[in-house]
Design a protein that fits this description.
Length: 535
């Protein structure tokens, strides 16, 4: 042990030095107290008073220093030093160690609730003081309030834990790479996707990890991305990952350089967002957009048809007015022609001309009658329970003579359990006759007409009566099929067709709340279907 030099100082100088030492301790900004070998307080400086709220006056010369920190007796670190009982430390302090600053010194720390009005975290540093002979004569203890530091440390630990929780629990795939592309961190979501463990992927090149191995092109792309990101670029592209079951996931992948406060790139941050469901939803959205577009087009078509129907109705009204205007002059014409026929000499040339004039006038008269018939406000329905086979047979009876003439075979198929339906017998007969005549017209060389009647279900699962009249005639051109129910649409103008048969039939069927439609193959035949509600 070095002999203290003070001993060699003259007495006055020694006292002076002691006073200075005392003043240094007293005025030190660090809280300090000193115990003598008998555990009595010999120094308790102002900073110590400030920190503990205990005045030196009440403590100097006593062994009550512990009262400043505890409510029951227990040794302080300085007491342990004096008694040389280091083995006591674990019982007294959770956090303790040998002092790194002073030889034979001890360090301890801990919370002291409500110490001078505040919860404080104190760090104690105690060291022995020896005399010239190396005998322990005192122990000095310094106290530092490191509460703020401790709080900051705790907060930073909590933040770190929170960050880690976010890192691991986010649905995003996140990792951390060295600038060379070695994987040094990876989160739970990314590992769960491939059913792997951190130990199996960390420390290896990122592009060699299982997220990429299904595609050598992607591996190369990632390798290039690492190079670019290490050079400061932000990279983003759509990629795919195969999960542990081999299911393909679409991923929005990005690679960002992470910089320190001096703007130096220290890591690369790979992130992946699973966008499989998003892409699916996008696809569905596109499909429904297309459906919507289709609906819109259909709506436009229907609108156009409605406008057309409206025009037709107006045309019908106009035609009926015209017909009334023409009817009388026509009647006068006919009468005049009949009169001329009766008074002119029976010269063949006269007679032929007059006959042909009469024929033309009669034809014009028929057209006018049809027209007026069509334009006339619909007669109120006279509904009665109708036996369907009877209705069909009686309608056929009117046109039947043609079948013999035209070499047409008739087939009837009536379901045995046909319900009785309430219909206007005469109007329905008119409909069927129109359709049968059309069928005969379509087969000048003969053929087959098949009539079926049965009970079926419509799209709304309601029971309806269905009558189908098919022929093996000339059929209807594709361009014409949508027009055959239009008034005055006729391909038989040359042979006297007015083009009102089906238009009138449609009006009658619709007044029965039914529907009529036709299907046809040009050159093969036509089927007309009538659906009637069962009431
Ligand atoms: N069974 C069918 N086979 C082929 N074409 C048909 C058939 N039924 C109707 N059509 C076509 O539909 C058009 C319209 O028929 P619609 O019965 O309304 O008039 P039309 O027969 O020409 O004249 P009319 O007013 O004298 O009946 C016909 O001209 C014809 O082109
Ligand atoms: Mg017709």
């Amino acid at each position: 042990m070095n002999r203290p030099k003070e001993n060699r100082l003259p007495k006055g100088a020694l006292e002076e030095k002691e006073r200075i030492m005392e003043a240094v301790i007293q005025n030190s900004a660090v809280a300090i107290f000193v115990l003598n070998a008998q555990h009595k307080v010999i120094y308790w400086n102002t900073a110590c008073e400030e920190l503990t709220g205990c005045k030196a006056k009440g403590l100097l010369g006593t062994g009550n220093h512990w009262k400043a920190f505890y409510d029951h007796y227990r040794p302080c670190v300085a007491d342990i030093i004096i008694d040389n009982k280091f083995s006591e430390m674990p019982k007294l302090y959770k956090d303790y160690s040998k002092s790194t600053l002073i030889r034979n010194g001890l360090h301890a720390e801990g919370w002291h609730p409500q110490l001078h009005g505040k919860d404080r975290y104190l760090a104690f540093e105690a060291a022995p003081i020896y005399d010239a002979d190396g005998k322990l004569i005192a122990a000095v203890e310094t106290l530092l309030d490191i509460s703020e530091f401790k709080k900051a440390e705790k907060e930073s630990q909590e933040n770190e834990q929170k960050m880690r929780a976010v890192f691991n629990q986010t649905f995003q795939f996140i990792g951390l790479l060295t600038l060379e592309g070695m994987l040094i961190q990876v989160n739970r979501a990314a590992l769960d996707l491939i059913g792997s463990e951190a130990s199996k992927v960390l420390g290896k090149p990122f592009w060699e990890a299982p997220w990429w191995t299904h595609s050598p092109e992607l591996q190369e792309k990632v390798r290039q991305a690492v190079k670019k990101a290490a050079g400061g670029k932000f990279i983003r592209f759509e990629a795919t990952h195969l999960d542990k079951e081999g299911v393909v996931h679409n991923v929005d992948f990005s690679l960002k350089p992470v910089k320190d406060k001096d703007e130096k790139i220290i890591f690369l941050l790979p992130e992946g967002r699973d966008i499989t469901e998003f892409l699916q939803a996008e696809r569905l959205l596109k499909e429904s957009e297309q459906d919507l577009q289709k609906c819109y087009i259909e709506f436009k078509q229907t609108q156009a048809e409605l406008i057309q129907a409206e025009k037709m109705a107006a045309l019908g009204r106009l035609a009926s007015n015209l017909a009334h205007e023409i009817k009388n002059p026509l009647a006068i014409n006919l009468q005049g022609l009949e009169y001329l026929k009766s008074i002119l000499p029976p010269d063949k040339a006269y007679i032929d001309t007059i006959e042909s004039l009469i024929k033309s006038n009669l034809r014009a008269d028929k057209i006018l009658k049809d027209l007026l018939n069509f334009a006339r406000p619909a007669a109120p329905l006279i509904l009665e329970e109708v036996d369907i086979p009877l209705l069909i047979n009686s309608s056929l009876f009117f046109v039947d003579p043609q079948s013999n003439l035209n070499n047409v075979t008739l087939t009837r198929q009536f379901a045995p359990d046909l319900p009785k339906v309430k219909l206007d017998y005469n109007q329905m007969q008119q409909v069927l006759i129109n359709i049968f005549i059309n069928a005969f017209d379509a087969m000048p060389q003969g053929g087959r007409i098949t009539v079926t009647a049965s009970q079926v279900e419509d799209v709304l699962k309601r029971k309806i009566l269905q009558i189908v009249i098919s022929d093996t005639g000339c059929g209807i051109k594709e361009n014409d099929i949508n027009r055959i129910f239009e008034p005055f649409f006729s391909t038989k103008k040359e042979t006297g067709g007015t083009g009102l048969g089906l238009a009138i039939s449609k009006a009658i069927i619709e007044s029965h709340k039914g529907a009529i439609g036709a299907e046809s193959k040009y050159g093969e035949g036509t089927s007309v279907t009538i659906d009637l509600p069962i009431i």
